[in-house]
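Hi Y.,

Following your request, here is the sequence exactly as I used it, all 213 residues.
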Amino acid sequence: MSRFVVRIHRPPQLKGAALVLSKLFGCAIPVVQIAIGSVYLDDCPVQHYIPIYLIVSGVFGLMLALFTCIPFPKEPEDNDTDVIDVVCITWNSLLAFFLFSWFIVGNVWIYSIYQPEYTKNSTNVDVYCDKTLYLFSFWITTLFYIIFGFVLVAGCCRLVCAYLCCPDDDANANANVNVNVNTNANSNVNVKANAKANANVNANVNTNVIINV
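Below is the corresponding structure, written out as tokens. Let me know if you'd prefer a different format.
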């Protein structure tokens, strides 16, 4: 069970090209959000908050991505926490909480008007929303749910695999314990047998001495 816990606390870390690609992806998405929101700022009368949602998400998402690229110094041996580390961790936590709240609000704005009118009508422009703007907002939001579901399934599979591998480790540990117990028991039996043999030898010696006397 202890090895199972250790496996949970030691997830694989991204290194090399995978780490660089993840950082680039994390920075590219916010930049595209800012660009799309700025270009189509006034092209969604049915829900004019959608472009604003993209711009704000892009700005704060880019800030969070850049802050995560800053290397943190290693923890000192005396376990004293640096003030800069505390400030950075607190800022990133608050930023992540704001982005999560903003994401929930954006879901309401985007999914509540599905699907808007993509063709601008001169008689009724209130139901119009640019197709590029809305579809980008819709799929970039849906993409987060797809990634979350994939990560959730992968995490569950990892836990199941780690749990299924643990009984073998426990069985081997129990087998080693049983072998040690049996070895100790055999050693005790041999010691007792030797003690009895020595006692018999001493008794025979004493008997021979008495007879000789």
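Residues 205-213 have pLDDT under 50 and may be disordered.

Thanks again,
Q.
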